[in-house]
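Lecture 7 notes: from sequence to structure.
We start with the chain below.
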Amino acid sequence: MNKSKFYWDKDPVIADEVKKLVGKPVEISAFMAPLDEYTKMREFLALRQSVGCFYCEAPSPTQVILVNLKSGLTAEIVHTAVKLRGTLALSEESRDEFLYTLNDAEIISK
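Predicted structure tokens for the same chain:
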């Protein structure tokens, strides 16, 4: 996702290699950032690198993935990288949503 680019005044440029992964199962290693809760999270953000505060040290939108866990799964925040598996989705049309989403995700290693 490093080759994707985001411009605040233009549409995002998504790398072709990323577009080929949309709708397919993928595995990523990332750091967790909570959206609101630290325990029993059903969704959280996956980031390339650990940040103290997502809002204070905000990464580029092309470096953030919204993670939606599989039905019935929850997670607690950990401060080391985790390995995730899920189906990649892309939202190029709306600036009100995260650019990338990992759906039906599970944490496969901590």
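Points to note: The helical segments are 16-19. DSSP finds one helix and five strands in the chain.
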